[in-house]
Known about the structure:
The complex is a heterodimer of chains A (about 425) and B (about 280). Chain A has about 425 residues and is an all-alpha fold. Chain A contains 20 helices and 2 strands. Helices cover about 70% and strands about 0% of the residues of chain A. In chain A, strands 1-2 form a two-stranded antiparallel ribbon. Chain B is mainly alpha-helical and about 280 residues long. Chain B has a domain at about 105-270: Orthogonal Bundle (MetI-like fold), CATH 1.10.3720. In chain B, about 75% of the residues lie in helices and about 0% in strands. Chain B is globular. The two termini of chain B are about 25 Å apart. At the A-B interface, helix 2, helix 11, helix 12, helix 13 and helix 15 of A face helix 1, helix 3, helix 4, helix 5 and helix 6 of B. Chain B: It is found in: Cell inner membrane; Cell membrane. Chain B: Pfam families: BPD_transp_1. Chain B: Belongs to the binding-protein-dependent transport system permease family.
Amino acid sequence: MAVTALEGDAGPDVDRTSLKTKLRRAERVNRVRSFSLVAPLLLFVLAVFALPIGLMLVRSVENTEVRETMPRTIAALDGWDGQATPGEDVFAAFAEDLVQTQKERTTALVGKRINYEVPGARSRFLKAGRLIDAGGGGPWGEKFIASDPEWGSVEFWAIMKRAGNTLTPYYLLTSLDLRQDAEGAISRNAPDQSIFIDIFIRTIWISLLVTLATLVLGYPVAHLLAILPPARANVLMILVLLPFTTSILVRTTAWIVLLQSNGVLNDILLALNLTTERVQLIFNRFGTVLAMTHIQLPFTILPIYSVMKSIPASHLRAARSLGAGPLTAFVSVYMPQTLPGVGAGCLLTFILSLGYYITPALVGGPQDQMVSYFVALYTNREMNWGQASALGAILLLITLALYALFNRVVGIDKVKLG
Amino acid sequence: MLAPSYATPREKLFYFFFALFCGVVFLFLIGPILVIMPLSFSSEPWFTYPLPGLSLRWYIDFFTDERWRIALQNSGIVAVFATLIATGLGTLAALGLSRGNVPFAGLILSILISPMIVPVVIVAVAMFFGFAAVGLNNTYLGLILAHAILGTPFVVITVTATLTGFDRTLTRAAASLGASPWTAFRTITLPLIAPGVTSGALFAFVTSWDEVVVALFLASPDQRTLPRQMFSGIREQISPTITAAATLLVIFAALLMLTLELLRRRSERLRGTGA
Lengths: 418, 275
């Protein structure tokens, strides 16, 4: 606006450009000022949130254990052609490295890393360490192979050589139940070791069930809240918002109290003679989906409600007056207009459900644990941080893809709270 | 009463079942929370109705037991500081973004909101590794920073929502009357966006107050928070002290919701929209 007005002026060209420049400069100053308001939080989020997550992603392909602890062996393996058992130079380097790892107590660490790909390797490494401790000299090749013929395996040394690379696809492949053999070909893991695809499918399936349940339960409630007079709707809204602001842990505790075999729900079922013995309601899929549905229900209801609230009641009346039956009017006039809310609510619930950890851990059984549980398990208990990071990376990828979809379909700036 | 006046008897019957269905869903929503509260007043440590007798022993236990007391104190410290950081930075960012001339505003907003979307275990594990490198694990500061991150999206969302209805001519008028940007902000903008800032702060507070996963990874027993104490309690054996803690948290949540509702009304009144 300002620019066109200026151009209409009869002033000389020089003034016009200088005014334009000034205006542009003022706008730039303004932009910088706006950005400087955003910058502190952006930097904070990038440093404390995005950077650690980025490092976690790196960790899912990082592979420094073997290279750092057995540098001589890896260097010696560089010259190995992979056709036959490596020569004495490799074994001598390996023995030298083992002397070092025994001193630094890292033999078990390397053994554990190789053990991921060669079952039994950890104990073989520990045995080799004891062989080194016993003292004596070479030739090491004969000595190692005499202690365990597996030391002569070409396949083992090929995997050892590969484990010396600084990057590995191993953890990501394992997260997808894939393995890479000594030659580098990728194949499916043995069925008894294939657990992760099942876990991802389970996670998605539970999230779908929860999303569907919240939609079926939430859609009518959102409609009721939208058509009631405000005073009564506000009272009923409390019943939606109180659970929303109550701690997830409190609600999960409540479900444990309700569902356990000597809990309240079983008491009611027995008192009503609906069952003759106590039913297992908890530590199974039913309990998990029920508790998660309870927690997610407000997240689905609120976006649907806010869309329904904006649909004029006259639309339905008009449809009816034009001869549509109640069902036709609802399905063909009202429901299509609620779809943006349904999309927003369901997508939000689905995305949030994918990351559930606490609730399944407390009310689910072993078969109901979702990806997050295994990320925590591999971090805390198994100490296999590469695997934890790889599982986390895949879960993050799925979540972010859905988040991008949500952003495109709904728009993150449209999200409201309460 | 729900059915329109022109409804046929069949429709009225339908509306009856519709209302009934909604009633059941409301019961489902509120029931579990209502069931757990009376159990905290039980005189015996088992969870059955009718209650064997009434007592306050679990509340006495909650307030006298050293572990619960420390957990309550830790939760308070961490939540207050996390809220201050989240509210300060979040409000500034929302103000900047709402000026409408920030380059890549959409991308920046997505990044700022993402802590709400990324599964919390990923946040916890990533920070567990990242913070270990700089010695922030097992410190109050680490936990406060992590909780502040989780709280900021709520502040950004609520303040942005308040600012969309904000009349910019007000600050321009202030500036034309000679007010410095800071004076204009303090006397014009801040009072008008205060309800949004406060409800954002409340959401940030409750996020930290309820957070358990990050606390499990980043905090040592010294920094154990209330949810973490509850979590280990549930894991081992649900003692009625947990139901007492839960009841107190429900009351806390109810007060919070009430405050949010009052703030929403105030905000609507200030903007001259709403009823």
